[in-house]
Design a protein that fits this description.
Strand content: 15-25%
CATH class of the largest domain: Alpha Beta
CATH topology of the largest domain: Rossmann fold
Radius of gyration: 34 Å
Helix content: 25-40%
Number of domains: 4
CATH architecture of the largest domain: 3-Layer(aba) Sandwich
Structural class: alpha/beta
Largest sheet: 9 strands, mixed
Shape: elongated
Strand order of the largest sheet: 1-2-3-4-9-8-7-6-5
Distance between the termini: 90 Å
Number of helices: 19
Number of strands: 25
């Protein structure tokens, strides 16, 4: 009895380690489910000169009699088990092993150019045996049809190729990959030049999930506009199934109705009229920001958008973030997730509670002024009661890995149904990667965040830093901020739906000016409206941000509060 000695690359499909080598020199690929009778590794195999009956005897999995009294022959014949005509069998060079008048196997010839290189034998129990060298062979049937032409049909199996040829009146070329859906991509890559020579490649893989997925992956390999994917009627598995049931007309109709493959997200608008009718009156649901001026510019914040909040060190990003977090909890019934990478979860919770309490609860000196019962009441009001189970915070315990953080993000959004996510901040995510190049790290993270927002439809607030500027005045002096000041990569601006910058001259001798933050919209994909949106005055006593409307942003009198 043979047993598996080691795992090696399959000579038939693209798997690098799925072939199990047996003691007798045979192998079985667990990826394409094919038995390889004479596996020779990286050596050339040679055609085994033996009858199909001898092959049948040596392979116990094949059905049929192996006794000496049985009468066996390998001949061209009508493939009655598949309702394929003798003419088609002869066209493709397919013979059958007949034992006592019963077909027990087919053998399909494979060619390297016009030279027979290998034979694939298929038993009635779907067991496959290869003889010869299958490494360099072309597609099944490729030797029959010269390169170039208007149409060629590509199928998942040999009998389907022959069936497609018959169903289309024996007028159009039809070929098959050698290793089914599992190895189809590799087979097409190896024979891409041949397929590319045709104007249209009609892909007719099995009407199941593996077949449909493989068809799409193969279509991606071909020149855009060349690949067409057939959609068979739902009651039929493949081309041979339709042939056996005599559905010639239905197959022909499916062939000519095959749609040109277009990548996901590319739509022909002429086909979207009904969808447009359903969507045209849908209003984008928006949640207002806590401040009037910002709403005037942005018309609120929307699920499915990535909003980046930026500003220099000490300019109030954390305060703004806390106000927004509390606002989302208080003003919506949505679940809210917070990932604050520079502080533990209790500090984050107290920061949100501080907004509710109008007090700097994060300061021990302020917190000491409150009884435990009062602090408990604030906690219960913000995170329990009507808000019970709606607020989720990432407890990272000081250990962060970028993949782990993204796993937590996805779980919050999908598993916990968080409609709004706050990530504070981007550059802590960068530090959690192994990438030494900050720009590359930011590019990768921004693309992952953008993809997550697009896939899930969540609304995300992302805190980001600004780069240092040249010159005598920096962000701490209240200089005007531009998109070019975003630290590390242009992808932050490109992949964000909205960019909001905070500006404040914290070095001013005027206390009012030093406490007032100018909120500038640098990008708004939704409204297109950019510029100064509002001014926020920091209350030194409560730690809250109050909106002030200044007729002239450069005049700070305090009368407008």
């Amino acid at each position: 009895m043979a047993f598996v000695k080691m795992h090696l690359p399959c000579t038939l499909c693209t798997s690098s380690n799925a072939a199990g080598l047996n003691e007798d020199g045979s192998a079985f690929c667990f990826s394409c489910n094919t038995y390889i009778r004479n596996y020779a590794g990286d050596k050339e195999e040679t055609i085994i000169e033996e009858t199909e009956f001898e092959i049948h005897k040596r392979n116990k999995k094949m059905e049929g009699s192996s006794s000496s009294s049985s009468q066996s022959s390998v001949v061209f014949t009508e493939l009655t088990d598949r309702k394929l005509s003798l003419e088609t069998a002869k066209k493709y060079g397919v013979k059958a092993t007949v034992v006592d008048g019963e077909i027990v196997s087919h053998h399909y010839p494979y060619f390297n150019g016009h030279e027979l290189a290998a034979t694939k034998v298929r038993g009635r129990d779907k067991t496959f045996i290869w003889s010869g060298s299958a490494k360099e062979v072309g597609l099944f049937g490729e030797n029959l049809f010269k390169a170039g032409g208007k149409f060629i049909t590509l199928t998942e199996g040999e009998c389907d190729a022959m069936a497609a040829y018959e169903l289309m009146g024996s007028k159009w070329p039809a070929v098959s990959v050698k290793s089914g859906a599992a190895g189809g991509v590799g087979d097409v890559k190896a024979n891409l030049e041949y397929l590319e020579s045709f104007d249209n490649v009609v892909i007719n893989f099995d009407n199941d999930k593996p077949g449909k997925e493989a068809a799409i992956e193969i279509a991606k390999l071909l020149t855009p506009g060349k690949a067409k994917i057939m959609a068979l009627p739902v009651d039929f598995k493949d081309a041979n199934d339709m042939l056996r049931q005599g559905r010639h007309a239905a197959y022909v109709s499916s062939f000519w109705d095959a749609k040109i493959y277009t990548p996901s997200g590319v739509l022909n608008l002429s086909e979207q009229f009904l969808a447009y009718q359903e969507l045209r009156n849908n209003k984008v649901e928006a949640i207002p920001y806590p401040w009037f001026g910002l709403n005037t510019k942005l018309e609120g914040m929307r699920a499915g958008e990535l909003v980046t909040l930026t500003g220099g060190t000490g300019l109030g990003k954390s305060s703004v973030t806390r106000e927004i977090e509390h606002w989302l909890i208080d003003q919506t019934d949505d679940n809210v997730g917070v990932i604050a990478l520079e502080e533990n979860w209790s500090r984050t919770a107290e920061g949100i509670m501080a907004v509710e309490a109008n007090a700097k609860l994060h300061l021990d000196s302020v917190k000491a002024q409150y009884k435990d019962e009062e602090l408990d009441a604030y906690f219960e009001k913000v995170f329990m009661g009507e808000n019970d189970g709606r607020v989720w915070i990432h407890a990272h315990h000081g250990v962060n890995n970028v993949d782990d953080i993204f796993s937590k993000l996805r779980y919050m959004i999908i598993g916990l149904d968080c409609k709004w996510i706050v990530v504070d901040h981007l550059h802590m995510l960068v530090l959690s990667t192994l990438e030494s190049d900050e720009r590359k790290a930011i590019d990768g993270i921004m693309h992952r965040l953008r993809t997550l927002v697009e896939e899930t439809g969540c609304g995300m607030i992302l805190v980001s830093h600004l780069r240092r500027v040249d010159g005598n005045r920096g962000h701490e002096n209240g200089i005007e901020t531009g998109l070019n000041h975003l630290r590390g990569s242009q992808s932050i601006a490109q992949l964000s739906d909205c960019v909001i910058a905070l500006e404040r001259n914290q070095q001013s001798d005027d206390d009012l000016e030093a406490s007032t933050t100018k909120v500038r919209v640098l990008k708004s994909r939704y409204t297109g409206d950019v510029g100064v949106a509002t001014h926020l005055l920091y209350d030194q006593e409560t730690g809250r941000l109050r909106e002030t409307h200044l007729a002239d942003p450069d005049e700070f009198t305090g009368d407008e509060l």
